[in-house]
Inverse folding.
């Protein structure tokens, strides 16, 4: 496997977005790597994408086993499907952003990660995760809602823009 | 839609700050490193199977070995002693002096014991290195007044290996081979296991030695001349005695002690 350091970091960040905890993220990454090594690695054309998918499946299996499923079973209601809610483009206090990030569930964190860190559009995320675009948009909308709720009343921060 | 989304950018900056530290990265690289083991395929499986078998079998063997009553160990020692007794090997040291044996047998890890049967007069002929139940031992060769050979084996006494043993010659564990008219005594003294193969002189003198084996070349020839087929006797010298032929008879003192 010829992944460079930056690619390993990207995989780690993805695992961290799913798990929320660094130690869990590292475990997940190692488990995905073990799967990769056990699999016929020569036939895997894009190891990074393969490992990301495996990590996601492993994480979902683990959550189901533990009956936690804060993932909201991936059947997120599409109430915002056609509205295309925009995430506001205003500067937000860093600590508040981290607090909101920490309050998101894994499904939301995954979508926000792909949207923000990986730079994917809602349609690309939907395609990658195999979910309706509306579901993706609703998760992005939830982020916006949480940011709005956590917005101090006196704040002059303006949330605007579109995803 | 703005070209630069501040929220998106802010989130990206926050998320991209997270990265593997050096230790985490090193752990991943170690996992990726090819295994050092050279063995692959069926050889690796064979080696693994052998290791597992050894792990499974060893405790049973050790348990059996440690808990085996001495009668079993004693019979094995007796057979080995009897076999060695009837064969003639070159001596490592030819001497009638125990002091010289002490000086020259420097490979042994126990104190050589100077002990001989009281009922017969014997003369030391020499000694050689040997093993007893796989442990380094010495074989001391004595000759009786009648020219018969008496052999004595000494090795370090390990109670876990050999089990409990009487602590004096007078209480020695005894067995007797009727086929070869040899008595074998086993005991321990001063941390040394001693096994002694003694010819049954009385049987020789009373003419009950038809099926027996002489222990000395001279005596053998003398006895063999009385029989029509000395070659058969000569062959019998090198046959390993049967276990059934060994009739263990523990001394009452030793039985009571156990």
């Amino acid at each position: 496997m010829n992944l460079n350091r930056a690619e390993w970091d990207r995989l780690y960040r993805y695992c961290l977005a799913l798990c929320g905890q660094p130690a869990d993220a590292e475990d997940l990454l190692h488990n995905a790597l073990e799967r990769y090594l056990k699999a016929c690695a020569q036939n895997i054309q894009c190891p990074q994408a393969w490992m990301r998918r495996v990590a996601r499946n492993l994480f979902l299996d683990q959550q189901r086993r533990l009956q936690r499923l804060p993932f909201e079973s991936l059947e997120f209601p599409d109430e915002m499907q056609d509205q295309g809610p925009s995430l506001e483009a205003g500067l937000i206090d860093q600590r508040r952003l981290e607090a909101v990030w920490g309050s998101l569930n894994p499904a939301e964190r995954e979508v926000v990660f792909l949207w923000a860190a990986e730079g994917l559009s809602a349609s690309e995320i939907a395609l990658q995760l195999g979910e309706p675009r509306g579901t993706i948009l609703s998760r992005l909308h939830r982020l916006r809602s949480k940011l709005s709720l956590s917005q101090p009343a006196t704040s002059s921060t303006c949330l605007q823009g579109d995803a | 839609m703005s070209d630069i989304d501040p929220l998106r950018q802010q989130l990206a900056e926050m998320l991209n700050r997270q990265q593997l530290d050096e230790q985490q990265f090193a752990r991943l690289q170690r996992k990726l490193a090819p295994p050092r083991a050279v063995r692959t395929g069926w050889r690796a499986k064979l080696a693994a199977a052998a290791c597992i078998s050894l792990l499974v079998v060893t405790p049973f063997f050790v348990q059996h070995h440690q808990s085996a009553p001495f009668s079993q160990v004693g019979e094995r020692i007796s057979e080995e002693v009897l076999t060695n007794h009837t064969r003639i090997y070159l001596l490592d040291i030819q001497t009638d002096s125990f002091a010289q044996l002490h000086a020259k047998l420097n490979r042994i890890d126990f104190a050589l014991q100077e002990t001989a049967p009281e009922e017969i007069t014997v003369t030391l002929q020499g000694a050689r290195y040997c093993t007893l139940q796989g442990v380094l031992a010495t074989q001391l060769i004595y000759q009786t007044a009648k020219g018969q050979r008496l052999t004595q084996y000494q090795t370090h006494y390990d109670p876990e290996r050999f089990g409990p043993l009487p602590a004096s010659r007078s209480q020695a564990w005894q067995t007797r081979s009727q086929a070869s008219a040899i008595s074998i005594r086993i005991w321990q003294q001063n941390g040394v296991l001693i096994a002694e193969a003694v010819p049954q002189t009385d049987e020789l003198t009373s003419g009950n030695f038809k099926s027996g084996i002489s222990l000395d070349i001279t005596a053998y020839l003398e006895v063999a001349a009385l029989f029509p087929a000395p070659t058969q006797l000569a062959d019998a010298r090198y046959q390993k005695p049967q276990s059934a032929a060994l009739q263990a008879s523990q001394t009452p003192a030793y039985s009571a002690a156990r």
Observations:
- The two ends of chain B are 98 Å apart (CA to CA).
- The CA atoms of residues 108 and 171 of chain B lie 26 Å apart.
